[in-house]
């Protein structure tokens, strides 16, 4: 990391001053500001170029090749993409990813909104609960997945113990034994892990709504529900859009939680799109085909995000 | 004017940043040596984390007695192939690599390993090295690795539970029918007791633990040249039917269905599971536990016969190695008596069949079974082993999972898996 941050502080300084000096007094205030701006932006620009734009172009180039991890690669045109369209494993993975996204997005949003309303008041208790709800966010995703894997382990996990005491099955019930129960368990983990972040975002949105508006609505005789429906929700729309894009993008890119908690099983019932890309590239070593799948996922992701932004912006003006 | 200045400034800033980044990535350098040079300096080595227990002791022993030095990096087993493959592809790999033998055909076929044929031929103990290891190290008639550590699969059984269930602890099962009967008897001991534990969602575990049942019954899962999948053979049907019966009768713990290899060992260690197929490493674990009186017996076939998976690691010199002199010297030394004795002391099966009875078998009564199992063990040969077998979501693992824990017709599952495996083989 030190290498990546240090160059911009030294490097841009060396060539730049020469022309700047010679232009000397003639360089206007505006010009100097512009130069300063470019200098300040250049580290970010360099990082984005090296870590995003170049890999992106390389990914695209690789997707047009038969590119094994080791050995020679050769150009195959769009063959990888044609193969993907008929690849049942890939189509299953996409289907499962969509199913997961459709399941988890509303659950996350409603939970986060409910929690945001709960903690949107003054007082110590509200702050304490706000921190409590936010705590899981600071744990890494992999760590959280391992934690829940243990919690739900048949025979030894505390969750199965609780289930037994509540009369919901016996000690040895294996909750990972079917794809559906595995999916539900992973979803519960993800809600626990992510909802705090969304709550904070929505809370800041809620607090940005001027109190006078709610007051005015109440004076006009609007009940709680009507105030929420016609005042709060429309004003919260930009924040909701942001949260929704985060949540959908995150769900479409789901990998670690399934990799760790279900291992893609049972019988490959919980393999997500990214999981399939990982398998293609790093288990079957077909980097070219993996790159083609990544490119497809990226296009889909960009389209979904653009659509969401567009829809939510349009309704904002109506 | 100002505009031009800014553009050129940006360009030079970006170029400078890039140059610095690239030079930071490159790194290394230093001297290089060839195989025939005097072995001095330091060679780098990668090993799997499962070798953590002895690999540093081994390197220390070499470093103390030689001019050359070996510096070991331990890499997580689960990511070893990816890490080594990526490093080899980018030229940043180690000089020496200890590689799981099943992956050797793949790496040898990709030309990232040095040809060690002459080194193997120069060893006076060449003929007593593990035959399975030698076979896996060969690609197109050349040898790309030397045997390093061995591992073999056997059936572990809990003698205490055998006694409690009224079975003779000195007569472990010899056929599927006997295994089934023993498992039933142990299950009858009460709630929480199980006859047999399986890691149902682990491809690597099941080539080690389940394939020997198929081999012992006279079947195969791959042709000898690795070019044809044989997942649809009748012996595979027999083994899967046998396992499915144990599962449907409740003789396996519920965790078996989704176990990726973690629950199986602990369930046997808990003392409530009668039998489990595992390797030499498990002897050490159980001995350290001091809780269970256990026996080891060869893995059986349907109507008798025994087989084992001969596993372990081979040691290789990479094509891009910088210090080849030390690397060649070390890999030769690693198969010698001094090095192999250090392994045996750390409960690793030596790859020298001539030394097993001297340095390994006397250390524990169960080691004799393991040593014999290793000498006669089999290992499937395939350049796409990872894709068809070790992948936890691949054809082999899926076949085991659905065949044992599912309800669909086993023969049709075999047909599906056969097709998927053959497809991976054909794609190379």
From TrEMBL, chain A:
Record's compositionally biased regions (Low complexity): 1-13
Classification via Pfam families: BPD_transp_1
Check the record and name the InterPro entries matching this protein: MetI-like, MetI-like_sf, UgpAE/MalFG_permease
Q: Which CDD domains match?
A: TM_PBP2
User: Where in the cell is the protein located?
Assistant: Cell membrane
Ranges that cross the membrane: 35-62, 100-120, 132-153, 173-192, 235-255, 289-312
Q: Where is the ABC transmembrane type-1 domain?
A: 94-308
* Cellular component, GO, one term: plasma membrane
Predominant subcellular localization, coarse grouping: membrane
- How does this protein sit in the membrane? Multi-pass membrane protein
Tell me the GO BP annotations in alphabetical order: transmembrane transport
Entry keywords, A to Z: Cell membrane, Membrane, Transmembrane, Transmembrane helix, Transport
Which family does the record claim for this protein? Belongs to the binding-protein-dependent transport system permease family.
Q: What is this protein called?
A: Sugar ABC transporter permease
Q: From which source organism is this entry?
A: Streptomyces brasiliensis
